[in-house]
Amino acid sequence: MKILVLGGTGLVGNAILRKLLEKGYADIYATYHGRNPFLSSWIKWIPADLTRQKETEELFFNLKPDHVYLAAAKVGGILANDTYKAEFIYDNTAIALNAIYAAHKCETKKLLNLGSSCIYPKFAPQPMKEEHLLTGPLEPTNEPYAIAKIAAIKLCRYFNEQYGTNFLSVMPTNLYGPNDNFNLETAHVLPAFIRKFYLAKLLEEGDFKSAKKDLQAHPIGFGFDGKIDFTDNPSVLHTLAKVGIKGPSHSTPPPDARTSIPVSPITVTIWGSGEVYREFLYVDDLADACVYLMEKIDAPHLRSHCPDYFVNVGTGEDIKIKDLALLIKEIVGFKGEIVHDLSKPDGTPKKLLDVSKLFGLGWKPKVTLKEGIRKTYEWYAGTF
How far apart are CA 344 and CA 276, in angstroms? Predict the structure, then answer.
């Protein structure tokens, strides 16, 4: 069986590749665009811009894959979604239209489309069921992304109904894990918290050397990359203060000394009140669910559970954002203070998926939130 993973270097695509290798699949291809490939010894990598229809169709007709995982997407947190609205709706709609249509034209046996829980209305009943799709207004901060994902769901449905294709969709809750995006301008909330608390911890310990390595190894966003003077510790402190990691006052240490810097507690600023609730799923659990559905569930079976041929994927448990911050602070070992920026939006008050349909199909998650955060933090801290 020939398998194609679209978006193989992203958070989800890379996790799916790891799961496929773990289960013994061999003839695996994956696309990349912008990020360098991982697992290059076992995967056949193909550069591809899936927003271009001709390039996407050539990819499919040259490979003729049996199974396709559509994990390619332009993703980001509230700030990125709200800032780059045109790119989010255009890129994600183009990727979905091109990939799904190409899969139909080259008679792909099965396709799994990765969606998002942001498809549901802002004030949808909780927990959110599959049938709540298109029953109310969307959350404005991520509406462009949500519209693109809804279009992909409907496209899969209508190809199934008109042409008898075997196209499924999954709607995962908020994801996190190894290979996530830790750019503080575009990251989702959980990886952004991990990085902020990690950098704050380094400042508490006076470990400028590791803080500089972090900033050199991973983009931080907001136009700061390439502009930090790493020979000047105050320049580093100034940059960190601009992204919400600061103390009321600082002393200036020698450039590369491991010395105690702050003379008052370090603070980490996070957006909003922290009073909203979110559900989080470790990405390896999502990958396991995706492969499970591709192996065991076909479109007619899924339609008996949902007329739009999709199913929610999550844990069925949520957590208040301020409690999430406290949990990550504890795991990372940061001892300073958390400050809430109430001028920033909270987003949807509560987002919890009803996962009873997926559980009824025989799948459940394995990784707890605390275990997943610890694994993600350990992975991130070991990347430089």
Answer: 13
Contacts (Cβ under 8 Å, ≥6 apart) of 346: 271, 272, 273, 275, 276, 321
**Domain-embedded: residue 110:** yes
* CATH number of the domain encompassing residue 15: 3.40.50.720
Number of structural domains (the chain) is 1
Q: Which is catalytic among the residues 29, 145, 309, 377?
A: 145
CB burial of residue 62 (10 Å; 0-12, 13-18, 19+): exposed
Q: Is 277 a catalytic residue?
A: no
Q: pLDDT tens digits, residue range 69-122?
A: 999 999 877 778 778 899 999 999 999 999 999 999 999 999 999 999 999 999
Within a domain: 27 = yes
In a domain, 77, yes or no: yes
Q: What is the pLDDT of residues 155-175, one digit of tens each?
A: 999 999 999 999 999 999 999
How far apart are alpha carbons 294 and 6 in whole angstroms? 15
